[in-house]
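Work Package 4 report. The design task specified in the project plan requires that, given a folded chain encoded as structure tokens, an amino acid be chosen for each position. We show below one input record used in the internal validation round.
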């Protein structure tokens, strides 16, 4: 297993992390506009979970299984096996699907929710069977944001968008549904628009029995961006809009009881945004 299963309970809602892989990388391999001296000021809370002793940041690729109201939702499906990936990263062969099925059998998944359509969020939407990519979750409805889907359907090709493997086979099978950016999946699980990384990007809010959580998607890739929202991610399609979205997110959820579950946060993955001097820090759950 690439990383041990972690589970959180938010009221009646259960969230389980299933890791595909964790990768260390130089901070400038992911983030732009970083001020090294400022980064050093955050090392005390970034290490050891989010930065290693070599000063590399840690990035996790994982799916989140959300159980709510008798429904099972898989939020983002990682990179997948057997497919061509950008930047010479693949193809991969991992045991992710077996790890996922230790939590829920793929035939039992009711919804697949893609926060956006980048390759590392739609990879296990499909699997290779007899030389053809077919939907991994045959009984699920795959939820794509309408704005996200329509934008990339008509936009110039982007190397990070995966229609070929992760989207088109689902559409061909008639299993997709285009939803609005504030769509309610269940009474407890609702989408929240967080545009900028991609034009139709969404996060996922959870509220149950007075407890609250939010799954970030790629609104933020690394916890240091909560403290430094002006540090962009290289893949951000609309960098200035993404910066404002991160600022708004911190203003909305900082110093509250909301559990923030980072879609790419390594280690404990979840925690709270806590004020720290003129900035903030991410305090692990």
């Amino acid at each position: 297993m690439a990383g041990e299963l972690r589970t959180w309970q938010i009221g009646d809602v259960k969230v389980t992390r299933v890791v595909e892989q964790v990768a260390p990388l130089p901070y400038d391999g992911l983030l732009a506009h970083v001020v090294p001296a400022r980064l050093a000021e955050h090392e005390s809370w970034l290490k050891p979970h989010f930065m290693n002793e070599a000063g590399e940041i840690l990035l996790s690729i994982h799916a989140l299984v959300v159980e709510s109201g008798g429904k099972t939702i898989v939020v983002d499906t990682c990179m997948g096996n057997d497919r061509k990936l950008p930047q010479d990263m693949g193809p991969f062969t991992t045991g992710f699907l077996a790890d996922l099925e230790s939590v829920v059998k793929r035939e039992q998944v009711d919804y697949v929710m893609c926060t956006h359509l980048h390759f590392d969020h739609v990879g296990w939407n499909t699997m290779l069977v007899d030389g053809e990519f077919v939907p991994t979750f045959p009984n699920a409805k795959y939820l794509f944001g309408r704005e996200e889907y329509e934008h990339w359907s008509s936009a110039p090709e982007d190397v990070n968008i995966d229609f070929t493997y992760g989207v088109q086979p689902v559409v061909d099978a008639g299993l997709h549904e285009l939803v609005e950016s504030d769509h309610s999946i269940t009474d407890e699980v609702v989408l929240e628009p967080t545009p900028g990384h991609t034009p139709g990007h969404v996060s996922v809010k959870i509220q149950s029995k007075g407890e609250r959580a939010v799954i970030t998607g790629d609104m933020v890739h690394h916890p240091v961006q909560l403290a430094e929202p002006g540090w962009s991610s290289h893949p951000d399609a609309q960098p200035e809009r993404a910066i404002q979205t991160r600022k708004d997110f911190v203003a909305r959820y900082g110093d509250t009881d909301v559990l923030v579950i980072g879609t790419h946060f390594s280690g404990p993955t979840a925690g709270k945004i806590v004020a720290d001097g003129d900035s903030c820090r991410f305090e692990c759950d």
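The CA atoms of residues 271 and 284 lie 4 Å apart. Validation will be extended to a larger panel in the next phase.
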